Amino acid sequence: MIVENWDQLTFRVNREAYRSAEIFTRERGWVWTHTWLYLGHETEIPNPNDFKVRTLGGRPLIFCRDTAGEVHAFLNSCPHRGTVLCRESEGSTRLFQCFYHAWTFRNNGDLAAIPDADAYESSDAFKASMGLRGVPRLEIHEGYVFVAFDPDVPPLLEHLGDAADYMTMIEQQHVGGMTTLPGTQQYSVRGNWKLAVENAMDGYHFAPTHNTFVGYLRESGFAVTDDNQYAYNLGNGHGLLVLTGHGGRISMLWEPRFGEDERVRTEQHRAEMAQRLGEERAHYVADESHILFVFPNLLLFDIEGLSIRQLEPVAPDQTDVRAWQLVPRDEDSAARALRMKTVVSFVGPGGLATPDDIEAYEAVQRGIQATAGTAVPELDYSDMSRGMADEVKGVQGRSTDEGAMRGFWRHWIDAVGLEDGLQVHGERPASFLEGRDVR
Amino acid sequence: MTATTNTHSVRCQGRTITRPEVEDFLYSEADILDHWDYDGWLALFEPGARYEIPTTDYRPGWSPHETGSFVDDDWDLLRARIKRLKSRKAHAENPHSRTHRLVSNVRLSEHTEDSFRVAASFVVHRARDGHFDAYVGWYEHVLVPTEDGLRFRLRRSVLGHESLAAGARLSFIL
Fold this sequence. Notes:
The complex is a heterodimer of chains A (439) and B (174).
Chain A: E1 2-5, E2 10-14, H1 16-19, H2 21-29, H3 31-34, E3 37-41, E4 50-56, E5 59-65, E6 71-75, E7 90-92, E8 95-97, E9 104-106, E10 111-113, H4 123-128, E11 137-141, E12 144-148, H5 156-160, H6 163-171, E13 178-180, E14 185-189, H7 193-200, H8 206-209, H9 211-219, E15 230-235, E16 238-243, H10 260-277, H11 279-286, E17 289-294, E18 298-302, E19 306-315, E20 318-328, H12 333-346, H13 354-367, E21 381-383, H14 388-393, H15 403-415, E22 422-425
Parallel strand pairs in A: 1-22
Antiparallel strand pairs in A: 1-2, 2-21, 3-12, 4-5, 4-7, 5-6, 8-9, 9-10, 11-12, 13-20, 14-20, 15-16, 16-17, 17-18, 18-19, 19-20
Helix pairs in contact in A: 10-11
Chain B: E1 9-12, E2 15-18, H1 19-34, H2 38-42, E3 45-54, E4 69-73, H3 75-86, E5 98-110, E6 116-128, E7 131-146, E8 149-159, E9 164-166
Parallel strand pairs in B: 3-8
Antiparallel strand pairs in B: 1-2, 3-4, 5-6, 6-7, 7-8
């Protein structure tokens, strides 16, 4: 499936990985059943009794806060016969009632009532066995709620590894912390979910694919470059792009298109950050843009503004996407308006850039049919070798290299449990680059 | 939607504007967009105007300045969007989508001294890449009468969908 060759400095991924129904089923059964998955942000359900419904790895879930304030994730399915229990997309309720036979549950999962419960032998014991089915594991890091359908996954922080600190950096951006906003971008793409991951970890496509957006930035007085931009393989399939060459950052890194008022706000905020976090930490938090991928379904675009993007594979060639804007809780209203305008001008299916990304990976999905079942099987591979020569020399991978993708694919092949899925020829270099620690 | 007693006409800037006049304006706008005449389309806006598409979970009253949205263009961004769409490097629309728009259920309501609101329904059919999508929703526009005819101050398209279907990204003007 994957051929990594250090003699020839090539890294190739068989295109069946994007096409095959069998691989897709394997991913559902392995990756999406035995790995921590991003469910949602705590601030989406800020108050007791708030709930949202959401499908994860194809499983309908209720994401809710109970009356006592505790966060839960329940299978959205009546324990009686399996009916979807909650058919609203969001709201506030203490009780979930199944419309089919009127079984009723509290929002902490306890069974509240079964009509005519006396018909069941030893009714109390039966009732006690019929609570809502919660997910086996739920842990929260900096407000990001993760769940696992396998009770034996390692602790969340162990899974997140170096990715955890980049999530902390986001929370540290503003003294009052961050919150999600209503107005969720929900859309679907005719492409495999892994193409969305590759696209996010790929600085190489930026200039050609986003030519029109780069032109807009240049006209607004910003010099766009690929210099000092790096790609990191953070391990466990996580990846990071560190970008300093394009796009300002609302309240952190000013550029002319943001206007003079924002310049003043940015200076004040930078001074506050330096005092609160120290100069060095404030530099990492404010002066670099980060695109963080947390295996397998979370992307954090910490760029002009902050977008959380969640991937939900529907079929080998279809992926549902949900995206939220994450903002400082106590933000000046003019800064907030500038942030929202700026963020959605870039990200999302109606922006000036994301539609071209989607076009690109939908085009890959169509194009990889060209070599399916070919009489020359070695043609049926996608190439991700860019930057391997630098890895041998111990030079830090640039954002325009494909090192973060290689890290993703090495972890993916382990996660889907394909025997002999990865062939390594030659020796991985001693200076093989993984991780980045700025703590 | 605001209920009005009379949606046949409104008084604005000392003039009476009738529904057929507004319908003609919206029909010709649809025609301009379906013929990919984006300079002609931009000429239908007053300087400083806005173009908005809220997300599919939109609730009436939400402000694009305080919520996520699909499109939140001020005048600068709107012009950047048009410039981009006219470029052959707007890859998501090269080749162009074919669209066909139907506008109906047009209702007028008075808003301020110099502008008025228009509500209308739309269906936009779009063909691209061997697929055919339909976008359904309503408009919540603010129009101003000028010497040269009606102009948009705010052009807002609100989708009736629960989410955007596969392939149905908003790379064109909705």
